[in-house]
C-alpha cells in the first residue's frame, strides 16, 4: 500500500488511479473490434521504461527533429470538420459546423469524442470524453450516451412508435446522424447488448410519461447521464455468457470517463458536464476582440463546491480522507465520472463481481485493490451539472475540450486563438506594451511569433488543429515555434504522457445570422 | 519515483510560467485596453513646450500687416523667421496654431550629421550647426541644448565604406573632421558595439544632437529680439490671393480667427499640414504624411557619451539619450497617415510594432546590450515625406509670394538652419544664395505635383531607400512612365534603358541583349504586394550599384565612339520647347538672355539666363524665328521677334517659372507657350550625320547653306520638321524638332538612311560623357545658380561688349572688374578610376574645391572632371594660378595626380561642330561613297 501511494504521487499529471490496473493496454487491442489500424506493437507501460534521467541530461533525443510536414501530418491525423448543409445558400441552422481533432498522449488514446444530429427531435449533440484506467468506459460513452439523450428528449408518441416498430420487426427510423472521423472506434460485438439496455430505458420512459409529454432538455440530459451510468454498472454485475463481452463490460465499468456534452437546438445551448472537461463560449466584443464565457464547472479539487459536496455526502470521520492530495480518496482526480465502480460499489460487490469474472482479471494483482479509507460508498457519481445558455449574435463559437487542453492553455487564450483564427485576424491587431517592463529582445521574439502566426493559421484548415498546435507548440513566449512542436510531438510514447495529456477538442461555430433572431421555440 | 515526479512537475510548471509578461502583452492587446495601463508614449526630452491649460486665443495681438507671415512654429518656421529678422526684414510674423514645436518638431530625434553626399547639403548642415551650437547662444545667452557627442556611420560592406570614404574626401573640402575607423578602432571608441560584421566606420567627432524645444525657444527669442513677432495659439483660417491686371496671382493677406494680416509673402512651414495650408491659396504641396517612429530604451550601462550611430545597411539609427538610446529607422513598409488631423498638437500614434520589428533586429545586432534593455517609451509621430526625400522650398509656381518651407522628410531640425537662411534670402532677394534647385518646388513638373499616386509611390520608395547607398546612376522604380514621348515604345523594343527626369522617360543607354522595360511599381514587396519577378530593368540598375565602372561601360563607350567616328541618333524629346512671342518679346529676350539672341532670324544661340546676382539660372538655346504665319506646333505666328526656346527637359519647369517671374516682374507684355509635349526631338550627331540627313531632308546641308547655329523648317521624308544645326556632343549634327505625329516616320527614315553608315541609337549616358569631353556644361551640375557664366567659363554667352542691359549684367560687370575668385577648371587623370563628382581638389596639397561632375571621356580615353576652385588666400583665380599649381584629386581617401586644362582637351579649336574633320575622316567618307 505505501508503495502504491508513492507511485500515485509520482504521477501528478496522470489522473488514473493505476494505469496498470488492467493490463489490457499492452495485452490486447483496446477495443474488441476496431475500425482503426490498431497500434499493435507492444506498448511498454511507462513505469518500467525510465529514460527520464537520460532525457534530462541530454536533450538531444534521437527523434527530435521532425520536419514541418511531419509535424503537420501528426497534428492533422485525427482532424475532422463538419459543415451543416446549406439550402439555397442559406444556412438556417444555428450551428454552421464544427471542427474537431484529438492528439494522443496515452498509447492508445483514452479520450473519445462524438458528434451527431438528432433526427427524431431537434438539435445537435457534441461531446468530449476523457477516459482513465483505460479507454473502455470512454469508448462506451462515445457510442451510447447520445442515444440515451436522444431517447430522453423524445416525446411519448415517438417513443411508442419506436417500440411498436421494434415489436413488429419493422425497420427503425434512424435516431442519430453521426459525424464520425474514420478513425473513431466502434464496438461491434457489444451493439446488441447496448440496444437491449437502451430499449429497456425507453420502455421505462414510455411507462413514466403520458401522451403529449416529453422531458425538457435539462431533465432529459440528467436522466440520460444517470441511466447510462447505472446501465454500465448493471451490465458489469450481470455479466454475459460470452466471455469476451463479459470481460468487456467489466473493463467498461472498472475504467472511468468524464463527459462534457452540448446540446444545441436553435438558440438554446445546454451543456451537461460530468468531470473536468470544459465548455467555453467564445464571445466577440464590440471592438472585435474575443472573451471567454465558461459554461461548465470543473468537478475536481480546485472547485470548492465539489469538495464541500463530497465531504457532506460522507460522515465527518472521513472528512480528511475523502479528498486527499487533491484527489478523491487520494486517488482520482475528477470528482464525478462514469464507470469507476471501484468508487461506487460496496467492497463486497466488487469482490463478488471480480471473483465470478473471466480469468483475465485474476492474473493481475491490481484488480483486487480496494481504495483506501473506503467506508461509505458510493464516493463517485455520474450526475452532470447542466447549464443553459441562450445564444446571442455575439456568441461566435463553443469550445468543448478535455482537460488536456485546459491545462496547457488558459481559456482566455484558447478563445483568442480560435477567434483570431476564425475571423482571419492574426497580425494586424496592434501590439501594445501595456505598462510592462519588456526588453527589446523579448519584443523581438514576440513580434517574430506574431509574424509566424499568420503563416501558421494559413497551414491549418481546422480550428481545432490550430488550437492543438498552440497547446503543444507554444514556447516560452507563448508563441508557437517549430522546435517546441517538434520536440513535443517526437517524444516516445512512454514519455509523452508526462509532458502532456490526451487532447480532444470540438469547436462549434454558430451562425450569427440565425442565433438571437429566432423566436423562442420557433422552427429552426 | 520521487525523482520522476519532480521532473514532471518541473516540466509542468515551467510551461504556464512562460514569461507571464509576454503572455500578458500578447493578450492585453485584444481586451479592454482601458483596463490596462496605456502604452507609454512620450518623447525622451525633459522639456516639451506643451501647456496643459491651453490658453485660448493668440499669445500676442495680431499686427494689421507684415512684410512676411511665416506659418508654422516648428523647426523651419522658427529658423526662417529668425533668419528673416537677422537679414533685416523685421516686420515679420510667425503664426503657430498651437505652441511652438507642437506639430512634429517636438518629437523629432534631433540628430545632426554633417556629412551627406551633396555639397549643398553639407553647407546647409554646417550652417545649422553653426546657428545651434554657436550663434544662438551668443545672441541670446541661452543654451539650445546642443550636445556634441559625435556621429558614427556603420559600413558592413565595401560599397558602404566606399561611400563613407567619399564623404570623408568631401568633408576635407569643407574642413569637416572625419575618420575612417577599422572594426577594432570602432570597438575602442564604442565598446558596447558588435563589430564582428563590420567593414569599417566613419567617425565624425563634431556631429551631435539637437534639442527641439530648446532650439525653437531660443530661435523665437532671438527673432523677437530683432523685431519679429511670434504668435502662438493662432490657427490660420484662410489665405487671401489677389489677381493683378496682368492676371498674376499674388498673396494678399492671411486670415485667422483673431484678425487678418495684410502681407505680400506667406511662408508655408506647416509640416504635415502644409498641403492643407497650400489648398487655402490654391497651391499644390506634394507631400505625404507617414508614421515615423523610434523607441526610447531604459538606461544602458556604459552608453554615456557614445556617438550617435547610423547603421545604413540595417536602416537603423541609435541616438544617445543621456544614459539611454533612442532606436529608430526607415522601414520598407511605412504606415501612411491618410487622414491628417488638425487637432494633433503634441500627439503621438500607437507604435505599430509589427512595422517597427525590422529595426529591433538591426539595433540588437549592432549593440547587443539592447537585447536585455527595457523599453521606456515609444515615439511614433507623423512626419512629412516627399517624392525624392528632399524638402519643398521656394516660391510656388501657382501664386507669387507664397513660399514653401516644408516636406523635410524628418530632417527638419538638421536642415532647418541652412534652409531657414536660404528661404529668408529667397524671400528678400528673390532667389536663394546657394543652389537650392534640389529642394526647389520647381524641380517637379506641374503635372506631377497633384498626382497622388506619384506622390505616394515615389515617397514610399524614397523613404524605404533613405539609408541606401547613394549610387551615381540609380533611378527610381516608383511611378515611372508618367511622361513618355512618341519614340518610347520603339526604343524600348530596341533595349533602351530609360532614365527618369521630370516625369519623362529619357533614354539612358541601349542594352544589347533585349528589352528592359520599366514595370509598374511593386512597392519592393511591401504591404503584401507581390514583387515584380525577373525584372530586367531592376537587375540592370542593380549592376550599377557600384563605385567602379559599370558592367556596361563598354556599351556606353560604343555609343560614344560611334558618335565620334560615325553617326549616332539621340532621342531628346523630353526637351522643354517654348515659344516666346508678343509685342514685348524682343525686349524680354534682350533682358532675359545673357547672350545676344537678336541675330538674324534663322539663327540659333546658346545662352544663359541669369539672376540678379549674375548666377546662372539656366542654359538653353534660343532660335529667332522668321516672320510668318502660325504653323503650330512648328512655328507660332511671328513678326520676326518670336523665339523658340529649347531647354533641357529635366529643368523645364524651373526655366518656365524663371521666365514667367521675370516677365511679371518687368511687366513685359508677351506670351510664353509650352509645346514640349506636342513635338518630339531627335539629334543626329557625328561626322556622317550630314550624309545620312541629306538623304531625307529637302534642304542643302552644306556648311555654306546650313551653317552651325542656324535652323530651318524643312521637309524630312515628307514631314515638316524644324532642323537645327547644333550639337550637345561637339560633333557635326542636326536636331530635328518634329510634330508628334510625324516623329516615328521621320525616325524610321533616319534609321533607314543611316543603316549603311551603321547608325546606332545612343542615350544620355553617352551624352554625359561626350559633352563633358567637349567641355559643355550641365546645368545643376557644373553650372548652377551660384555660378556666374564668367566663373563657369561661359563668358562667350554674355553680351558684355554690347550695351544691351540684361538681368545680372551689373553683377557680372562687378565680378569682371574685381577678377574671378573662383573658376571652373577641367582636370584629367591618367588612372582609370571612375569619379562621380564631390571628389576633393587639392592645389599643392591644400583643398581648393571639389569636382562637380565627372565622367569618362572615351575619345581622349581619360577620366575627366570639372570643378570650381578657389584661391585659399581669397585671391583671384587666374590662368597663372591654375598653371602654377600642382593638382591632385582625392577619391575615397586615395589621391590621384590631376592635370588641369584651361581649354577642353577635346577639339579645343572647335572644328568638329563646324564640320571640319581631320583628313582621314574625309577619306573614309570618300571610300564609303565609292
Automatic annotation (TrEMBL), chain A:
Keywords, in A-Z order: Acetylation, Calcium, Hydrolase, Magnesium, Metal-binding, Mitochondrion, Protein phosphatase, Transit peptide
InterPro entries: PP2C (IPR015655), PP2C_BS (IPR000222), PPM-type-like_dom_sf (IPR036457), PPM-type_phosphatase-like_dom (IPR001932)
Principal EC category: hydrolase
Domain of life: Eukaryota
EC number from the UniProt entry: 3.1.3.43
CDD domains for the chain: PP2Cc
Alphabetized Pfam families for the sequence: PP2C
Reactions catalysed according to its record: O-phospho-L-seryl-[pyruvate dehydrogenase E1 alpha subunit] + H2O = L-seryl-[pyruvate dehydrogenase E1 alpha subunit] + phosphate
A GO MF label: metal ion binding
Domain PPM-type phosphatase: 95-510
GO cellular component: mitochondrion
Cofactor(s) for this UniProt protein: Mg(2+); Mn(2+)
UniProt entry tagged with the keyword Magnesium: yes
Location(s) in or outside the cell: Mitochondrion
Reported function: Mitochondrial enzyme that catalyzes the dephosphorylation and concomitant reactivation of the alpha subunit of the E1 component of the pyruvate dehydrogenase complex (PDC), thereby stimulating the conversion of pyruvate into acetyl-CoA.
Quaternary structure (record): Heterodimer of a catalytic (PDP1) and a regulatory (PDPR) subunit.
Protein's name in the database: [Pyruvate dehydrogenase [acetyl-transferring]]-phosphatase 1, mitochondrial
Species of the source: Salvelinus namaycush
UniProtKB/TrEMBL annotation, chain B:
GO CC aspect terms: mitochondrial matrix
Domain FAD dependent oxidoreductase residues, every copy: 68-426
InterPro entries, per database record: FAD-dep_OxRdtase (IPR006076), FAD/NAD-bd_sf (IPR036188), FAO_M (IPR032503), GcvT/YgfZ/DmdA (IPR028896), GcvT/YgfZ_C (IPR029043), GcvT_C (IPR013977), GCVT_N (IPR006222), TrmE/GcvT-like (IPR027266)
Annotated metabolic or biological route of this protein: Amine and polyamine degradation; sarcosine degradation; formaldehyde and glycine from sarcosine: step 1/1
Sequence segments annotated as region (Disordered): 26-62
Domain FAD dependent oxidoreductase central as annotated: residue spans: 429-484
Known cofactor(s): FAD
Comp. bias (Low complexity): 26-37
Pfam families linked to this entry: DAO, FAO_M, GCV_T, GCV_T_C
Chain ranges of the Aminomethyltransferase C-terminal domain: 822-906
Subcellular location: Mitochondrion matrix
Residues annotated as domain GCVT N-terminal: 487-801
Record-listed E.C. numbers: 1.5.8.3
Keywords attached to this entry: Acetylation, FAD, Flavoprotein, Mitochondrion, Oxidoreductase, Phosphoprotein, Transit peptide
PANTHER family xrefs: AMINOMETHYLTRANSFERASE (PTHR43757), SARCOSINE DEHYDROGENASE (PTHR43757:SF11)
Entry similarity comment: Belongs to the GcvT family.
Protein name, as recorded: Sarcosine dehydrogenase, mitochondrial
Natural source organism: Salvelinus namaycush
Name of the encoding gene: sardh
